[in-house]
From TrEMBL:
SUPFAM superfamilies: ARM repeat. GO terms for molecular function: cytoskeletal anchor activity. Pfam families: Insc_C, INSC_LBD. SMART domains: ARM. Residues 35-79 form the Protein inscuteable homologue LGN-binding domain. Residues 92-544 form the Protein inscuteable homologue C-terminal domain. This is INSC protein. CDD domains: INSC_LBD. GO terms for cellular component: apical cortex. GO terms for biological process: apical protein localization; asymmetric cell division; establishment of mitotic spindle orientation; regulation of asymmetric cell division. The gene is Insc.
Length: 544
């Protein structure tokens, strides 16, 4: 009867509130609670799963409001920009893709209850994502609307399939339905991927249209900032922007004096897009390197503009890129670019500016010895060594990594040794062998390892000159190299640092054999390099 149901409701309420006092309840209800509390909890869990998905989505789309005359539709506050809305969309898309992956994992294990609950969640997220996107865009294409409809229908079908699975325990039926569910899951994922691709392409087109057509500095700046935010979401978005003509549109801005105040953020966005091959192709088509050269060599531009142009140069000359067809144009302008970058390093007012300029120079030195010869003629060695003594300019392991990369690549030149001696460079290399991370951040630790490795490589190369080798021995480089070889923690267990230190130690041992104890010579110098390497990698910390 109704009184019994009221008492049952009271039990459930008390259970959720954590109350254990059941004395006020009639005896039959007390007994039911003690015996069947697990069933009640199970019923509450099942209730969530059995809720009709359409109702959940409709409720989710209604705003909470105290005003009676407000419309019952999804409202996105006008204070949110296009960028904010896209961030919301991408966040929702990330949740959906994560859930789809988890559904596939649970389906593999036949966890039907979990599969169904997650399918309901995906259904709700998909509908919410579509509602949210349609609330801030007024120009979705017919093709997009059709795809939205297909996705919603397929999500509903997916939910219906999984609901049927939790209503049966017949293994034969479940096995037959599993293939249908797998197929539906694949279709949902495909439709979802196509929709996201279409939405992002549509938004990129809108932003680029604003950049190309607007004469307003404010509107153009807003569009460029939104475009930059999109590039930070990964290489896939950078490819979409590049394919839609993003590089062309941005270089058009960089060629108009009217938009000079927007050059820094425009160049920053270009650097992000040019991490993908499509961006490089576009850069080559619009003579982007010539434009960058003009900006770098124009002294009327601000330091911020020069620094961001250096960042683009650093990006397109990265030795990690597998596509290098654009470098033929770069070589034609290399002398002007290198000269401008050395000047920027010399006049840098902050660590960030120096880092961008030195990173570009470091990448350029990987091309061939011609770049290193240019740097030598421009007194770059002296400028870089002087900068390292200013802790406000070279203030991070990342900056020191760029400097020591340049030194290592320049050290192949015979003339480099005298420059190192004059600029007290051996002392700097010795200090770099002690590089350690202060924060423990993984990226910083990796940078410190590179600094140690490259400083050892530079010492090994330069120590073919007796004067450099003598200076290194006097500065106690040999004991430090031995320590790095024998102590894994000193080199952060890095094998690359170990190999570089063994090579440097062997070069110095040839020039100054008296600097080593017999045990060090027998273990670290006399054997084959591979044998010494294996010995050091198997050492326990207590050995030291």
């Amino acid at each position: 009867d109704s009184s019994l149901w009221r008492n049952i409701h009271k039990v459930i309420t008390m259970a959720f509130k954590g109350e254990d006092n059941l004395d006020s309840l009639p005896l039959p209800v007390q007994r039911m609670h003690l015996i069947q509390v697990d069933s009640v909890q199970r019923w509450m869990e099942d209730l969530k799963l059995m809720t009709d998905c359409e109702c959940m989505c409709i409720l989710q789309s209604k705003p909470i409001s105290t005003e009676k005359d407000e419309q019952n539709e999804l409202i996105i506050s006008s204070q949110y920009s296009t960028c904010d809305n896209l961030q919301l969309l991408l966040k929702r898309a990330w949740i959906i893709s994560t859930e789809l992956t988890r559904i596939a994992q649970k389906l593999e294990k036949n966890r039907w209850q979990r599969v169904h609950s997650m399918t309901v969640r995906v259904n709700c997220h998909v509908r919410s994502m579509i509602n949210e996107y349609n609330a801030f865009t007024r120009s979705s294409s017919e093709e997009m609307q059709q795809l939205e409809k297909l996705l919603i229908e397929k999500c509903s079908e997916f939910t219906a399939f999984t609901e049927r699975c939790i209503q049966t325990e017949d293994e034969r039926v479940l096995r037959s339905m599993k293939s249908c569910i797998n197929e539906t899951l694949t279709t949902v994922a495909q439709y979802f991927g196509q929709l996201i691709e279409m939405v992002l392409t549509h938004e990129a087109q809108n932003l680029l249209r604003q950049i190309e057509l607007s004469d307003s500095v404010y509107v153009t700046e807003s569009a460029i900032n939104s475009l930059f935010s999109l590039t930070q979401e990964g290489t896939h978005l950078c490819r979409i922007i590049a394919k839609e003509g993003g590089v062309v549109a941005l270089f058009k801005i960089c060629r108009q004096d009217y938009f000079r105040c927007l050059y820094p953020q425009t160049l920053r966005t270009l650097a992000s897009i040019c991490c993908v091959e499509e961006g490089m192709h576009q850069l080559e088509k619009v003579d982007g390197i010539l434009c960058l050269t003009d900006i770098l060599t124009d002294s009327t531009h601000s330091e911020a503009t020069h620094a961001e142009a250096a960042a683009v140069i650093a990006q397109i000359t990265s030795p990690h890129l597998t596509f290098t067809q654009h470098l033929s144009n770069f070589l034609e302008n290399m002398e002007e670019i290198v000269t401008a970058l050395v000047k920027l390093c010399q006049e840098a007012s902050s660590g960030e500016v120096f880092l961008l300029a030195s990173a570009a120079l470091a990448n350029i030195t990987f091309f061939d010895t011609m770049a290193c010869e240019m740097l030598l003629q421009l007194n770059a060695m002296k400028i870089l060594l002087a900068a390292c003594s200013d802790k406000h300019i070279v203030d991070t392991p990342y900056s020191r990594d760029q400097v020591v990369t340049i030194l290592a690549n320049m050290s192949v030149l015979d003339q480099c040794a005298s420059e190192i001696i004059q600029g007290n460079g051996v002392q700097l290399l010795m200090e770099m062998l002690f590089e350690r991370s202060s924060s423990g951040n993984s990226a910083e630790v990796a940078a410190c390892e590179r600094v140690q490795q490259k400083s050892a490589v530079t010492l090994a190369r330069l120590s073919r000159d007796p004067e450099v080798a003598d200076a290194a021995v006097k500065l106690s480089c040999i004991p430090r190299l031995i320590k790095l070889c024998r102590s894994p923690t000193e080199r952060n267990n890095s094998d690359s640092v170990l190999v570089a230190c063994l090579a440097a130690l062997r070069r110095l041992a040839v020039m100054s054999p008296d600097g080593l104890e017999d045990s060090d010579f027998q273990q670290l110098v006399k054997p084959r390099l591979v044998d010494s390497f294996l010995l050091c990698t198997n050492m326990e910390e207590s050995f030291v």
